[in-house]
Amino acid sequence: MVLDSIDKQILQELLKDGRKSLSALSKTIMKSNNDTMSHAGIAKRISKLEKLGVLSVQGNISIKNLKYMAAFILMEMKNYEEVQKIIDAYSECPRIFMLAQVTGQYNLILGVIGQDMDVLRRYINFCGPTNKKGILHSAILFTSEVIMPEFMPVNLFSGVSKEYKCENICKACNAFLDGKCGGCGNF
């Protein structure tokens, strides 16, 4: 899909303020002849961008303001089948805010979020994918501060854990049983 200048203007304005009204947008979105767009025209464009999967208006969360921590897990996998198993197992994990296939030494990178460094360590040591079959090598990078994006679409507060999908069962985990971990659905 090719975005035109109006689509790009709409996306830029919504990036600044996703709650901006259609009438406010109609004052800033300019057509090629320097006329402003009508709010009805902007609504149609937004609807089209949503239907095409280019735009999703949502409530994003500032992990910095919550004082949460993040880490990145880089993994070199044995083969593509093992890559796909990790993707399938962790794609709905509430602690994962990013999951991407990469090229180079590593096949996958996962962005992980936790309330503090101890929670991140427990996740990585007990629940995270680094202990799974098919991993040849992994590296873990703990962030000191997430600078951008300021707000991220993270599923922290659903209260629902997809623990069985990753095959980690909290009721059988020593960290959970000892009270050192609240489980993935507990932020």
Q: What does this 3D model show about the protein?
A:
Helix 2 crosses helix 3. The protein has two domains: 47 residues; 109 residues, Alpha-Beta Plaits. Helices cover 31% and strands 16% of the residues. The protein is built from six helices and four strands; from the N terminus they run αααβαββαβα. The protein is of the alpha+beta class and 187 residues long. It has a four-stranded antiparallel β-sheet. It is elongated, with a radius of gyration of 20 Å. The longest helix has 13 residues.
Terminal Cα separation, in Å? 38 Å
Q: Return the CATH class of the largest domain.
A: Alpha Beta
Structural class: alpha+beta
CATH superfamily of the largest domain: Lrp/AsnC effector binding domain/regulation of amino acid metabolism (RAM) domain
Task: Please list the strands of the largest sheet in the order they lie side by side.
Answer: 2-3-1-4
SSE order, one letter for each helix or strand? HHHEHEEHEH
Protein name: HTH asnC-type domain-containing protein
GO molecular function: sequence-specific DNA binding
GO biological process, one term: response to amino acid
GO cellular component, one term: cytosol
